[in-house]
Amino acid sequence: MRCRVLRFGIPVSTLLLCFAFAGYGQTRLSDYKNNLAPNVRSPQHAVDRMLEIARLKPGETLYDLGCGEGQILITAAQRYKVKAVGIEISRDLAETASEKVRKAKLQSQVTIVHGDFMQTDLSKADVVTLYLAPLANESLRPNLERYLRPHTRVVSYDYPIPEWKPIDTSESQGRSGAVHTVYLYEVPDSIVKK
Which of 32, 80, 124, 136 would disulfide-bridge 132, Cβ 3.0–4.6 Å? Predict the structure, then answer.
């Protein structure tokens, strides 16, 4: 009898474990199905340069697409007294960003949204910041053109937005001496009409 329980119990428990891991994997992988860029933390001097070139004014609203741990949002809220909204597809990063916002006591100024910025209405933004891969900028461009109001500024670190003309650029020194470009766009002036 004991041998029979072991003979049937082990395969059944193994099967249950496989289902549990499969369910966990689907939940976690669904976080990333629309992930358009890797998580690369911006150096603080790059964040500072992005916010300087954006010419933020107190009371404006900044959206950071793919906000990671919230570094741009927290700096913008503290230094420029703006409202800041971060959109992050990774649940873990969104939770980390929310915790950092709580620790900085900025909940009234900074909102973290766990979601897909490709599905986000950006019409309330005065400034949009992004540090995304080139393909992501290209995929995002139609949404920016659809949602952003005239005079909204868009700041992109490292990669230009295809078919847009920057109104300003700035260089930022990176790690190991690499030079990075910060692009500033303004709607509709930066949109190249065909």
Answer: 136
